Amino acid sequence: MQIPKKLTENLAKPKKIVVVSHRNPDGDAIGSSLALTKILQQFGHNITCVLPNQLPDFLTWVPHLEEVMFFDNHTSEVKNLVENADIIFTLDFNHLSRVGNDFQEVLEKFDGKFVMIDHHQEPDSYAEFVMSNPAKASTCEMVYDFIDELDATNKITPAIASLLYLGIMTDTGSFRFPSTTSQTHRTIANLIDYGATNWKIHQETFDGNSYDRMQLLGRALSKMKVIESEKTAYIPLKQEDLDEFNFKKGDTEGFVNYALSLKGIIFAVIFIENSQDKLIKISFRSKGDFDVNTFARQHFEGGGHKNAAGGRSFDSLTNTVNKFLGILPDYSKELKNDA
Ligand code: 5GP
Ligand code: MN
Q1: Which CATH architecture has domain 5-206?
Q2: Domain limits, the chain
Q3: Atom number in ligand 1 closest to CA 312
């Protein structure tokens, strides 16, 4: 990573800083933004970590969570912080719309300097300082490099190490996606040396299942459909399925990976109905060269990475699935050619 010289100069004196990550924060979002906050705080900056909305239950164990301010609950305080900030760091997203409409409006009024640290493709141009690297598996790995380049690894406490470990772990699918490099493992090794309790982070994140969530997973698996000719599997989940098992935020996280784990399947999709927001939330996953970022951008108002992307539809669940099934044959050649 190359930190822009002008940014280092800007950070040489104490500043008012806000660190922001995306709506519906995942492990990489909370890990990267809170870790960066805790490092820069030690340089004497007046700094606050702001997330648009709450974390899923399986991430509420993270250290220093009590210091995070949530836009949805503290809207006027956050507006104040943004108005008075010198610098706003935006982490783990490539477009301001990823924070949600209301928070986006607030951020668009900010007339100071934006800094982007992110690993999504096609970064937008709102930031004065852009550190974007789609080859990196996680923003947390980039924040580690940022800290290293600031010569500040001595400031990595066990809590900060755990936060960075979390984001690398979740965004690499526990170190198994192709984006995982030897450098990722070196960073992980260093983080363990700095006090990240690796076994405990896995346990806290993945072994906190509720009985309801496992039952909902059972329902999702039983609704899974396979289109063998297109090497595709998909899962439609209705609002009533979610209600039956007392759905809580985060409960469907990772379900789509079960569809992708089927032998011979390289494209997996989950459609989740959300009656309250009147939309269908869609997650796309792929193996190999099939590019779900492009697929999500072109057809479902979304985006992300080549092998993992999200999108949405404002039509009914049935119509959305039918639209998807209608489009799929256009990709037959690509899907069949892939390993
Ligand atoms: P998920 O399916 O878990 O919601 O998202 C998968 C990946 O795609 C994540 O890295 C997420 O940040 C990204 N992503 C999800 N929705 C969108 C979207 O609407 N736009 C963009 N650019 N990325 C998205
Ligand atoms: Mn990420």
Answers
A1: Alpha-Beta Complex (3.90)
A2: 5-206, 211-337
A3: 19
Which residues, other chains included, contact 151 with Cβ-Cβ below 8 Å and sequence gap of 6+?
A: none
* Nearest ligand 1 atom to alpha carbon 309: 8
Answer yes or no: is the C-beta of 23 below 6 A from any ligand 1 atom: no
Q: What is the pLDDT of residues 48-58, one digit of tens each?
A: 999 999 999 99
* CA-angle at 97, arms to 96 and 103, nearest 5°: 80
Three-state DSSP state, 131? strand
Q: Does any ligand 1 atom lie closer than 6 A to the CB of residue 173?
A: no
The amino acid occupying position 17 is I
270 lines ligand 1 (CB under 6 A): no
Minimum-distance ligand to the CA of 312? 1
For atom 6 of ligand 1, which residue has the closest CA? Answer: 309
Does the CB atom of residue 31 touch ligand 1 within 6 A? no
3-state SS string for 221-279 = HHCCEEEHHHCEEEEEECHHHHHHCCCCCCCCCCHHHHHHCCCCCCEEEEEEEECCCCE
What per-residue confidence (pLDDT) applies to 1? Answer: 81
For residue range 232-258, list pLDDT tens digits in order. Answer: 999 999 999 999 999 998 899 999 999
Output the DSSP codes for 77-101: HHHHHHHH-SEEEEES-SSGGGG-H
Distance, CA of 188 to CA of 140 (rounded, Å): 10
Question: Would you identify the CATH topology of the domain 211-337?
Answer: Diaminopimelate Epimerase; Chain A, domain 1 (3.10.310)
